[in-house]
Design a protein that fits this description.
seven-stranded antiparallel β-sheet; 6 helices; four-stranded antiparallel β-sheet
């Protein structure tokens, strides 16, 4: 006697889909979210200027100039710095750092855009630093930006490129190369001499970057200005173009930079910016190079140990940050 199978065929498909979903979710959590250390390539990149200075004998008794102890940037931007620390709600000045923070708007009504601009001058490159969540290099580590700000004694801080979402992409932090191979995204490099340049993945050469003194490198993007400093109207991926909260860094000249934080997803306060709008803004500010970092809920800016913007949905912990701080020993 044949027994009829009363279990509908469609239920088998549902069960299969559930198993696939559980497997994919588990893999995503284990691979991307579960904190684990990564093996760093740990290549220390030396400042080329320090190498050349160490190879030459210098007679310190010959220095009679009263400005001999000042850096080139301290002399060039002398009017920006202060002999003592002066800190207000929107400014910070010291012998090595000058920060002016401002809140700006574009548009009106439901199309209003609110963004924050940190105009930054530094006397030495070590004031432009980066930090890793929990001070660990790995996948899945995260920390609130304000906590990193306080732990690293930052004067101003923004979220970085969220390098810890995986184990691919160039990652150079404070003169140490953790990863050297580019993925498909644009790369931004800050060099020891203060210059900042952006590259497509295919144009980035790690050995060349080392020879030129790469100090920081981020692998997220896209680059917001072309090689001539002009704004960009079209981007390769439509995924990055809709209005969103944004975080970006801008470069004017060695020693002069800006942090830009655009709030978004809040009609009436700030809708966010499309990538072409962000590109146009960086050009309007006068930047010669500019680079988009992780955005959305990650976009957060702190200044003098407080969160300045209104992160979407309260913000989220991030894997790394970019900060301006007093150099060690100062």
């Amino acid at each position: 006697m044949q027994i009829k199978n009363s279990f509908p065929v469609w239920r088998y498909y549902v069960i299969d889909l559930l198993f696939v979903a559980i497997f994919c979710t588990s893999f995503y959590f284990l691979y991307y979210k579960l904190p684990r250390d990564l093996v760093s390539e740990n290549i220390v990149i030396i400042n080329p200027e320090e190498q050349s200075e160490n190879s030459e004998s210098v007679d310190s008794d010959c220095n009679t100039d009263g400005d001999s102890d000042l850096t080139d940037w301290q002399i060039k931007f002398k009017d920006k710095f202060s002999d003592k620390i002066i800190s207000t709600k929107n400014t910070y000045k010291s012998p090595n750092i000058s920060i002016r923070l401002s809140k700006q708007t574009k548009g009106s009504g439901k199309s209003l855009i609110t963004y924050y601009l940190g105009d930054i001058y530094i006397s030495k490159i070590e004031c432009f630093a980066t930090g890793l969540a929990r001070d660990k290099y790995g996948v899945g580590y995260s920390e609130n930006l304000l906590d990193m700000d306080k732990r690293l004694n930052a004067r101003i801080a923004i979220n970085g490129d969220y390098y810890g979402i995986g184990n691919r992409g160039v990652c150079i932090r404070n003169g140490v190369a953790y990863r050297t191979k580019a993925d498909t995204a644009d790369i931004c490099v800050l060099y020891y001499d203060g210059t900042m340049k952006t590259y497509t993945a295919g144009k980035f050469d790690f050995e060349e970057a080392v020879d030129n003194g790469a100090y920081q490198a981020w692998n997220f993007g896209p680059a917001l200005l072309d090689k001539n400093g002009k704004n960009i109207d079209e981007f390769p991926s439509s995924r990055v173009t809709p209005k969103n909260p944004r975080t970006a860094i801008g470069y004017f000249e060695p020693g002069h930079y800006c942090f830009v934080l655009v709030d978004g997803r809040s009609p009436g306060y700030s809708t966010g910016m499309t990538m072409p709008e962000l590109s146009s803004l960086m050009r309007e500010l006068g930047c010669n190079a500019a680079y988009n970092l992780d955005g959305g809920q990650s976009s957060t800016l702190t200044f003098n140990d407080r969160v300045i913007n209104q992160p979407y949905n309260g913000g989220r912990p991030c894997s790394d940050c970019i900060i301006i701080k007093e150099a060690d020993g100062d």
